[in-house]
Amino acid sequence: MLISEAYAQTGAAGGDSNLIVQLLPMLLIFVVFYFLLIRPQQKKMKAHREMISNLRRGDKIVTSGGFVGTVTKVIDDSFVQVEIAEGVKTRVSRQYVAEVMSKTEPAQSEEKGSSSDSDDDK
């Protein structure tokens, strides 16, 4: 009986350090998951949101369904009109745009064009 009581007394004294040692692998696994899975996925989602918000008329896109087309009209914040063949236009939700194959340059404002004309007159 005396021996079993001695084991019980020494086991309770090291309980705090054992708890840290037991939780350390769990914390390490969480940190690895964060840097290998969660963080890259968040970056990918942010890049996709940015790509969707920058859609303009004339951009060639690929939808998540595999259709390739040209944006003919930006309807609102949720939808764009896409021409997938000559004369075939359809509405597509912006979230289903998987990739922008080629971007169009933004149209130049008329102020820049008129200022170059006035420079020629001088």
Distance between the termini: 110 Å
Q: What name does CATH use for the topology of the largest domain?
A: SH3 type barrels
Low-confidence stretches: none
Structural class given helices, strands, pairing?
alpha+beta
Count of DSSP E strands? 5
How much beta, percentage-wise? 15-25%
Per DSSP, the total helix count is 3
Radius of gyration: 30 Å
Please explain how this structure is put together:
With 122 residues, the chain is an alpha+beta fold. The chain has 2 domains: 47 residues; 48 residues, SH3 type barrels. It has 3 helices and 5 strands; from the N terminus they run ααβββββα. The protein has a 5-stranded antiparallel sheet. The longest helix has 39 residues. The N and C termini lie far apart (110 Å).
How would you briefly describe this protein structure?
Helices cover 52% and strands 25% of the residues.
Attribute tags:
3 helices, 5-stranded antiparallel sheet, rod-shaped, alpha+beta, 5 strands, 2 domains, SH3 type barrels, 122 residues
Fold topology:
Layout: H1 2-13, H2 15-53, E1 60-63, E2 68-74, E3 79-85, E4 88-93, E5 97-102, H3 110-121
